Amino acid sequence: MSIRLTRRAALVSSVAGAAALPSSGWAQTAANDAVSLADQVDIYVKRVMAGFPDQPAVSIAVVKDGQPVLTRGYGVRAIGGAAVDEHTLFAIASNTKAVTCAALAILIDEGKVKWDEPVRTYLPGFSLSRPELNDMVTVRDLVSHRIGFGLGAGDLLFWPNSDRTRAEIMAAVPHVPIEDSFRTTYHYCNLMFVVAGEVVAAAAGMAWEDFVQTRILDRLGMTGTLPLMTAADPAKSALPHGRVGPPLRYQGEMQTIGQSIQEVWNWSSAGAAGGFVTTPVDWAKWIAVQLARGALPDGTRLYSEARANEMWRPNIIISNSAGPTETLPGRAIASTYATGWQVQDYRGERMITHGGGAPGYVSGTVLIPGRDAGFSYFTNAEESFLTRALRSGITDIVMDKTGFDWIADGQRLQREGDAASVAAAAEIDAKQAAGAPPSLPLAAYAGTWHDPWYGDITIQARDLQLWLSFSRTPALQGPVEPYDGDTLRTRFTDRREEDLFITFTLENGRPVSATMKAVSPDADFSYDYHDLRLTKV
Fold first, then answer.
1. Rounded CA separation 474/462 (Å)
2. pTM exceeds 0.85 for this model
3. Residue 520 burial by CB count (10 A; 0-12/13-18/19+): exposed, middle or buried?
4. End-to-end Cα spacing for the chain
5. Which among 330, 251, 240 has a CA at the least distance from the CA of 2?
6. At what angle do helices 34-51 and 406-433 cross, to 10 degrees?
7. How far apart are CA 92 and CA 397, in angstroms?
8. Helix 96-109 with 191-204: angle, nearest 10 deg
């Protein structure tokens, strides 16, 4: 298995405490006032980009004492293209979740929603694959990743880009498997934030995106921000970049992987989980209202201080450890998930944070309440060790606790991760070369295969080969070839997507059911092939 950082780490785990070495080479210095803070962060971001030279663009917003002290873009919108600036749009994916929770907080202040009221109070038709939970799941549960769904459960309903409507996603919820106990274990779940968005819509009498536009974005003056990426102008956007192999996804040369944000990231049906596109100038306003516990510059409030405190109150433990050491300076004693935010200790202080990962984009927001400071970083590539260096290094500058070289350490981890991925790819190919032939002629595996929550997947015989297509996900189609016995593998024509293994179960010489899993050990968790339980129609 690769030690590469997963999207889960980019989203909600503190990777500051990941395997690390003592400082070597350049390490950033601290900043004790706003001017120095801006200067030091500016210098540091330039050094991070020099350390990871394939990164096309980074945008930064830094807020101190209620004021933006740095909003700046670095690099280019696309390889060989125009420069980004502080008004360039980036997809920020799951940073949206805190906005959805703020929308709920506003409705709670108005007496229209309660955190601990059952979801069925607002959505009477809400049901799950474990009926005993139907009347127990509360609004707080929806936004705390603690219902018991597995990591990324149901994400194939909208990842990669799907043609499903929000209503169709909601109709699939009762069939998505729940693998763990209720309120006992943390598992990151986008699907329940889609449901939370529908709670907002039901209580407010308008769609989630209309509510956040009129009640949050308009009030904060975030005029460049869009709640849904489908309206993002490519001419004003940082375009997505990534590595699509060979040998595997996330390997090979950096390249532009889309000519717009929405080409690779259309979560309009799942907007409450990850729909936002924004700019450093606008997101600085969001950071400021977070640090002000909901207070606005004009003396009014977006939401009450009580609601602000509730959104930062931990609801489930993500992980725990013995705490920081000399070689693990950022390791948290306790990392928790609150309400749309991760809350943890970092070098003896409280950190409120969340990340976002989309094809071609990684981003994050960090709040340090004890310093009345916060920052964001937006990128238009999938370089998670670069974003690790940004997150941890800028936090150290803000906290005056510098001295560890996150750039050098990230470069080391990236080299090790790349080597492990290449070795994994070679092992996959070797197993295929040595694999047993299928039990049956390839045409015998053709047909329509149905999963209760995803729907249909078809396998057709075409000119002496098989062709697999996901009925609701246009990008997931391509030839299927023998791998080992009754396990076949895909070669999707869109190389931005992750190939899969499909393993058939035979009865009386006929394939009757099948399971799937991603080919690559580095595959994003939202390719939740492993949750599919296919039976032949």
1. 18
2. yes
3. buried
4. 35
5. 251
6. 30
7. 23
8. 30
What distances in angstroms separate CA 318 from CA 94, 196, 201, one per listed residue?
Answer: 17, 21, 29
Backbone φ and ψ for 146, nearest 5 degrees, come out as -135, 15
Of residues 287, 292, 314, the one with CA closest to residue 304: 292
CB 305, CB 114: distance < 8 Å: no
* Cβ-based burial of 167 (10 A; exposed 0-12, middle 13-18, buried ≥19): exposed
Please tell me the distance from the alpha carbon of residue 172 to that of residue 281, in angstroms, as a whole number: 38
What is the distance between the alpha carbons of residues 163 and 195, in angstroms, rounded to a whole number?
Answer: 18
pLDDT tens, position by position, for the chain (537 residues)? 233 444 444 554 444 443 333 333 334 444 557 789 999 999 999 999 999 999 999 999 999 999 999 999 999 999 999 999 999 999 999 999 999 999 999 999 999 999 999 999 999 999 999 999 999 999 999 999 999 999 999 999 999 999 999 999 999 999 999 999 999 999 999 999 999 999 999 999 999 999 999 999 999 999 999 999 999 999 999 999 999 999 999 999 999 999 999 999 999 999 999 999 999 999 999 999 999 999 999 999 999 999 999 999 999 999 999 999 887 899 999 999 999 999 999 999 999 999 999 999 999 999 999 999 999 999 999 999 999 999 999 999 999 998 899 999 999 999 999 999 999 999 999 999 999 999 999 999 999 999 999 999 999 998 889 999 999 999 999 999 999 999 999 999 999 999 999 999 999 999 999 999 999 999 999 999 999 999 999
d(CA 488, CA 442): 10
Q: Which residues contact 254 (CB under 8 A, 6 or more apart)?
A: 54, 56, 79, 241, 242, 243, 381
Helix (H, G, I), strand (E, B) or coil at 57: strand
Question: How far is residue 531's CA from residue 189's CA, in Å, rounded to a whole number?
Answer: 13
**Residues 93/274, Cβ–Cβ less than 8 Å:** yes
Q: What is the Cα–Cα distance from 371 to 153, expressed in whole angstroms?
A: 37
- 135 Cβ contact list (under 8 Å, min separation 6): 118, 120
Encode 368-399 in three state secondary structure. EHHHCEEEEEEECCCCHHHHHHHHHHHHHHHH
Task: Count Cα neighbours of 477 within 13 Å in the Cβ-side half-sphere.
Answer: 16
Sequence-distant (≥ 6) Cβ neighbours of residue 441 within 8 angstroms: none
Our separate counts of H helices and E strands in the chain read: 14, 20
d(C-alpha 146, C-alpha 149), whole Å: 8
Place of tokens 């928790």: 336
Q: How far is CA 6 from CA 331, 362, 473, in A?
A: 17, 11, 23
The DSSP 8-state label assigned to residue 83 in this structure reads B
